[in-house]
Design a protein that fits this description.
The complex is a heterotetramer of chains A (about 350), B (about 160), C (about 160) and D (about 375).
Chain A (H helix, E strand, L loop, with lengths): L3 E8 L10 H16 L7 E5 L10 H5 L11 E4 L3 H13 L5 E9 L5 H4 L16 H16 L3 H14 L14 H6 L2 E4 L1 E2 L8 E10 H7 L4 E10 L13 H10 L8 E3 L7 H9 L6 E2 L14 H14 L5 E8 L5 E8 L2
Helix pairs in contact in A: 3-11, 9-10
Chain C lengths: L9 E13 L1 H12 L3 E5 L6 E2 L5 E2 L4 E2 L3 E4 L2 E10 L12 E8 L6 E5 L12 E6 L12 E6 L15
Antiparallel strand pairs in C: 2-3, 2-6, 4-5, 7-8, 7-10, 8-9, 10-11
Chain D lengths: L4 E8 L11 H16 L8 E5 L12 H4 L10 E4 L5 H14 L5 E9 L5 H5 L12 H17 L5 H13 L14 H5 L3 E4 L1 E2 L8 E10 L11 E10 L13 H14 L4 H4 L2 E3 L7 H8 L8 H6 L16 H4 L3 H17 L12 E8 L4 E8 L4
Parallel strand pairs in D: 2-3, 2-4, 9-10
Antiparallel strand pairs in D: 1-7, 1-8, 4-7, 5-6, 8-11, 10-11
The chains are: A alpha/beta (about 350), B mainly beta (about 160), C mainly beta (about 160), D alpha/beta (about 375).
Amino acid sequence: MRDVAIVSFAQAKNHRRELRNEVEILMPVVQEAVARSGIARPFDFTCSGSSDFLQGQPFAFVMALDAAGAWPPIAESHVEMDGAWALYEAWVKIQTGQAETALVYAFGKSSPGDLPEVLATQLDPYVMAPLWPDSVSLAALQARAWLEKTGKSERDLAEIAVRSLRDAKTNPNATVSGDFDVATLLAAPYVAAPLREHDSAPICDGAAAVVLVAGDRARQVCKRPAWIRGIDHRIEAHALGMRDLTVSASTRLAGEKAGVGKAKVDVAELYAPFSHQEPILREALGLGAGVTINPSGGALTANPMMTAGLIRIGEAATRIWDGSAQRAVAHATSGPCLQQNLVCILEGE
Amino acid sequence: MSETVSDEGGILTAPHVLEYPYRRSVGPVLGRFFTELRAGKLVGVRTQQGRVLVPPQEYDPETGAATTSDFVEVGPGGIVTTWSWVTKPRAKQPLAHSFAWALVKLDGADTAMLHAVDAGDIARMRTGMRVRPRWRAERVGHIHDIECFEPEAAR
Amino acid sequence: MSDEQKPVTNIKTPMRLEYRYSAGIATSRFLHGIAQGKILGQRCPSCKKVYVPPRGSCPRCAVATEEEVELSDKGTITTYAVVRVPSENIDVPLPFASVHVLLDGADLPMFSVVQECPLEKIRMGMRVQAVWVPKEQLGPTLQSIRYFKPIDEPDVPADQLRETV
Amino acid sequence: MAERCAIAGIGQTHHTARRDDVSIAGLLREAATRALEDAGMDWPDIEAVVVGKAPDMFEGVMMPELYLADALGCSGKPMLRVHTAGSVGGTTALVAANLVQAGIHERVLTVAFEKQSESNAMWALTVKTPLQASVVAGAGGYFAPLVRSYMNRSGAPDDTGIRVALKDRRNALKNPYAHLRDPNMNFDTIAGSPMLWDPIRLHEACPSSDGACAMVLTSERSVRNTQYKPAWIHATSMRSEPTQFAGQEKVNPQAGRDCAKDLYAKAGITDPRKQIDMAEIYVPFSWFEPMWMENLGFAKVGEGWKMTYEGATALDGDMPVNCSGGVLSSNPIGASGMLRFAEAAMQVRGQAGEHQVDGATIALGHAYGGGSQFFSMWIVGSARP
């Protein structure tokens, strides 16, 4: 495999409700990522991630191209997925030798609709979607299964939320942050028992962009490139009643293929939009007590759909650039109850 | 200005509805499932490895291999393998009052299916409890032919 | 159930999702202009081209656009089609002429409709002007421009429209 | 450094207005199992799956690849979902090919589909957005003015579009999978069909179809000994430009010209009309054949219509185009681009049956999408590159 590094990352502040259109949100983010990369346009490849259903408009990604810099014409593609998978496609393109540089971006506007209801349209259209189960209720099925299997409590989940919100205080882009205590959080009513508001990610709008560069060129433009030392993604059965919800088999497999266990991990940015999913992911990736989890505050403090996975990779890269980590793991997820997962290993020189 | 259009600090917003009455062809396997539902029966299908999938699928989710033509009547009772409690149901959801979402493993099935459980109160819900379908009187061959599940103990 | 009932082959799964659409900054400014009977484009700071309706960027230069330019409500048809098939998103009675109109002072055409003209008389290069709803009905929507109508000005030669289809 | 990539298996469904006999999963599996069988493989042989389709509103399933993972034997495997508007079928094949070319996977299944009958294509393509005066009536309403501009600039005879439609519909009679197969279709029925989006007549427009296409792409060492030898990818390219900007050339878009130029350079093609034996190109409205002939460099600007008029693009012409009947005869939008790519590969494998071009060894697959702004292409050959 060729050496490929992340050399820049930018993201929008993750507002709960963003009234700008997708081009207006993306343009400054893409410009910032491009400026920081030290690479002049055009990029050899551009790839983006988004989903039409979030804002209810077909071809939202087509208009978003206005922000990318697509003139003269560029080699470009789009996944109807989180931008983390767009980054994977760009990494593959570089591996084929057809590109040395790539711009990856993603955007998501969830605020125009009722996101938990919109996400019900992701389900099997014959036997699940017609019941309109919301995404929080489905996650709660998984949470209960996990709590009952492990003997953990709702207090353990609240502690994850408290830590995330505290860590997000240093993240200027977080939607929510602050000092909370477990007892206060536990006094709140259930949203979908056993989950309370703090157990699920805030709904927000956002955008992010990343620049990838191959080989020595990365060293020329970046003091300490975040090298992609492994990247893999796996999916598992869709129907919730056909899999063991208390583990994440696809994350475990992707982590093994990416090589998480080959060396010590300093930091992990895990895309866990629900509190109980963080320990499920930690277990699947074999991340022990010595690993700093989600120093950005994670998805529990900012969760722009189709973007938060790419943000995990960008946040992990940031820890490599600033020297606070030598080896970082980034994770992205998609689908109900962690159906599809991507794992990316980043290392400093 | 139209009353539905709002000016929010200079930016205009307006309601947008994405609506379509989708009509889905279901294929032979789900077709059998819905046909049996209309008759007040629940069936699964056997995989080549012998597992019984409920709802039945044309394929084994583990391997992609086609399932067999062996349909197996299951239930009607089953056990709740996990559940969550909805305090305020959304308009499109199966029940208008508080209810549980549950994965229900029907007797004779190897997989669990998603549906609502009308237990009245969260205190009546527990993992492992037995439930049975509450059938709609007018059935058309749809997942909604099961209005919901309800605790067996209620009967 | 009667045994005569046919097997189920189809199900109905209606979908209705409600959203609150936001027009964004540039389009909102444009629509506020329309509500005052003005057509406001935006000029690209880099290539100086004028966009209408503006979307807040020049896709050619990939830069944000800010500078507003008031445009004439007269323009030239660069190309057109006569629509004779119904479409759920369109309220105009059939058949109608769907046209690309290059407003005077703009550098790319906007999509609109021409009326008050026999369909067979419509041609590329034809000069047209916006017909607005009555002043008291003006609102922040493109429906404030009912349609374009022909005006008595000489056609613009085709070679001058080449880059503005 | 790229690995050679073979097209080892190809499958498609019968395309029709409403495939009422299958589920969405069943539709994909019909194409996929045919591709697997053609490649001499079964589900466990596949390492990764790449799915493509156009807007999710068609079926009303958001990111349907999640639900389809089980149906495509994807449990424990990587799955990608591509969406680049109408070009998506082609782009999806290129993303799948990249996985092999990069040496990441040995055997990749790629599937593209659309089950348009679950809703309505005109609705799904131009969903009404508030605060805008919607005057574009579906794809036909969008492309008809561009066709008029082409007619005006080129001075092409008015019946050029009718001739293209007649050729493609006749070709479709030789393709058992095609949607529109009317043996009585003739010049007069096309000419006499109603103008939907004047200058586009009903029979000069593509149908709305349900359908799927699948291919098994493999590394050289994974090719199995089956009835047909594999096709080989000689070159790929993709190019995009923004939807609308000042000074844009919409009739003969630069993204398409650049894409073809890049493609030919990679494939060592200097005279496309001589060196390419046949082409499957994305022609949803008949006039796009001459437009793309110019855009792809088969004809000089303004002269693409002459190829149609002189019969060059007919099955027995010197540059056969859309021998399968093309998009004009079958249009499951998400799959339409992949069908072009697959039909090109079928030709160089000699498996195109009645619509086979004798001795085809080099073929072009082409797809475009959005407002004539997304292009993807490949050159495939019977010989290893």
